[in-house]
Write a structure and sequence with these properties.
Layout lengths: L1 H25 L6 H20 L9 E12 L5 E11 L5 E3 L2 E6 L5 E8 L5 E2 L4 E9 L8 E7 L2 E3 L8 E9 L5 E8 L9 E8 L5 E8 L9 E6 L15 E8 L5
Antiparallel strand pairs: 1-2, 1-8, 2-7, 3-6, 3-9, 4-5, 4-8, 10-11, 11-14, 12-13, 12-15
């Protein structure tokens, strides 16, 4: 019925428009030429002002305070690169960190690799907080350098979702037997809602508070209100320099998966 009414109204509007056009043709405008010229001049000026006026784009208040691409080789000789992008919320409102991308290039500006679907954690970043985007990936060819430039292309918006953080306790950081590090701890659901797809992330920093790594896991079970469960955080790969001795500080976040559209 709604579609039928819309069609009828559209048809009536079209008939009315045609009728008005025929009346205008039979009764030409009696406006003075000078008035027409003034009107055309005003329209022209308006168009020019619209074309020359700079387009203002709103940028959320954040800053990339550190970025680095470390090239390294694993025990079987495969070439890897660790890309680190450190983001600080410099504004007064929470931010939501969408998936982003980055380009890796050498000092001569030659593109070595592109990275896509990158995620920074925590996903919802409160004012004054720091998030890390850490990606370890293989390179097809050894670039012959120890570092690559990381050029981030970030997608960050004002947060529309609530910032949910679960309690963290009993943390310990250990060197793995065959290289790398891991973190043990417990997470407690301090809310009244069941937590599904709970992310637990540890951002690791050196003495200058520059990001050097990230440990991560997703809980396989739902986290019920008041429930406390243990976790182990690891990373797929990391430079040999990522050891407990080189970690000066860390921040651990636990939160449910949240989408923002």
């Amino acid at each position: 019925m709604k579609r039928f009414i819309v069609c009828i109204l559209t048809f009536i509007f079209a008939i009315g428009t045609i009728g008005c056009s025929m009346m205008e043709e039979n009764n030409p405008s009696t406006s003075l030429p000078q008035q027409q010229n003034d009107s055309n001049t005003a329209q022209s000026q308006s168009v020019e002002e619209t074309q020359t006026k700079p387009v203002e784009t709103k940028r959320e208040a954040y800053e990339v305070i550190y970025q680095k691409g470390t090239v390294y080789h694993n025990s079987i000789g495969t070439t890897w690169v660790q890309a680190v992008i450190q983001i600080e919320n410099t504004g007064s409102e929470p931010l939501y960190l969408n998936s982003s991308s980055a380009d890796l290039e050498n000092n001569e500006g030659k593109l070595v690799k592109t990275l896509s679907l990158l995620y920074a954690y925590p996903t919802v970043l409160l004012p004054g907080e720091t998030a890390l985007l850490v990606e370890d990936t293989t390179l097809d060819n050894d670039p012959g350098v120890e570092e690559l430039n990381v050029i981030p292309h970030l997608d960050i918006a004002k947060a529309k979702v609530e910032c949910i953080r679960y309690n963290i306790s009993d943390l310990s950081l250990e060197n793995e037997q065959y290289g790398g590090i891991k973190m043990l701890g417990r997470v407690e659901n301090n809310t009244t809602e069941v937590g599904s797809m709970v992310y637990v992330v540890a951002n690791l920093y050196d003495a200058n508070h520059n990001g050097i790594g990230q440990l991560f896991t997703i809980l396989t079970n739902d986290l019920n209100p008041g429930e406390k469960i243990g976790f182990t955080l690891t990373c797929l790969s990391a430079p040999d320099s990522l050891t407990v001795e080189n970690v000066a500080s860390y921040e651990v976040f636990a939160f449910p998966l949240q989408f923002q559209f």
